[in-house]
Amino acid sequence: MLDRPLRTRGRPALNACDAVDEDRLLGLAFATFAERGYEGTTLRDLSKRLGVSHNLLNVRFGRKEDLWTRAVDWRMAQASSFVASVFDEKADPEIRLRHLIHRFCLWATLNADIVALTNVEGCRSTWRLDHIVDCFVRPFQQRLDELLEAVRLRRSVFDLSTPALMALLVQGVGYYFSAIPLQQRLGAGAEVDSDHAAGQAARLAEFVLAALLSEP
Predict the structure, then answer these.
(1) Is the pLDDT of residue 124 over 60?
(2) CATH of the domain at 28
(3) Mean pLDDT value across residues 127-131
(4) Which long-range CB contacts under 8 A does 15-22 form with residues at least 24 apart?
(5) Is 11 contained in some domain?
(6) Do residues 22 and 105 share a domain?
């Protein structure tokens, strides 16, 4: 007779949580946190959506705050290199800055869930905001400061702080592509659909760069 894990009638097997693909689990968790917020998300609801028991989800990930941290770290690691890799390009600082702004605007068309999470968490002072800022935002800001300073040594750059520039990109361009139902109601039409988003992102990038690199 084959050894099988004990189970209670009507409940998932004891190893059911291990059978769930971790990427799928973390992706669903992140999407739910981004959509409903931390307080509006429960492990019990997530376990129902995954088809595993609440207790098994607790065993694998621990408390809700532990799952939130794992999901955020996983999702940010997935998405960050698309933009951050520009910092390491072997190119003139102005060229790297142009690439960075274009890449960030394109990134915004692909990561509405991250934009949604930062919009929710950025409005309150919590341990979750500390985690996002310390692990992801501030390291990016430091490298952006260094890049802008390198550009300023060669040409004039509009006197705009990096917090303001990042807000324009994330809460400006990012929100534009994440709040698509709103944009459609305002008449954006094809600008924000999947076939035209990349072209619109390029136009927005050129708009930002025209202001940032304008001659005094």
Answers:
(1) yes
(2) 1.10.10.60
(3) 97
(4) 16/51, 16/52, 16/53, 16/56, 17/52, 17/53, 17/56, 17/57, 17/59, 17/60, 18/60, 20/50, 20/51, 20/52
(5) no
(6) no
